[in-house]
Design brief:
Largest sheet: none
Helix content: over 70%
Distance between the termini: 48 Å
Radius of gyration: 41 Å
Low-confidence stretches: none
Mean pLDDT: 85
Keywords: Signal
Number of helices: 2
Strand content: under 5%
Number of strands: 0
Order of helices and strands: HH
Amino acid sequence: MRTRLILILIVCLPLFTNAQGSMQRQMQASNAMFRQQNQMFLQQQQQQRDLRQVMNNIQTTEDKLANEERRLKKHETKVAEKEADLKTEKEKLASLESNSENKPEAQKDIERSKKKIAKSEEKISESKKNIEKSSSKIQDLQKKIEDNKIKKEELAKKHEEEKRIKEEEKAKKEKEKNG
């Protein structure tokens, strides 16, 4: 009786170990598939974060561009006003010079007027430099917006491509399960 029991155990032992081995392989395959799905999910989340970041960058840059354009308009109006003031000062100086008859008070007025004109010309020069800076900044911001839009399109294409690949893999796995 003992020998029969031992013989039955010896015969059944390989069957149990085989079943356990195939179970382990099945678990490993399942874990690998889960790991791959998890990795793809994390990759998609990263792409979505990158896309949102690029969108935020575009929005921020567009806001900066709008502010810089307002600043540019402000500088341009200031220059126009200062040029108009300069023109009136020059006319005033010309009338003082033509009406002056070597009076000390007239000479003082002429000197004051010349100083005012020099200051106005300096301010106009400074404002024109500010206009150049603003124009340069506007061009840089426009370029940055274009670069970000291109980056956004690339990320969107990449995201769509990976979505398509994932769908194909799903369909392939469904066929394997059904076939």
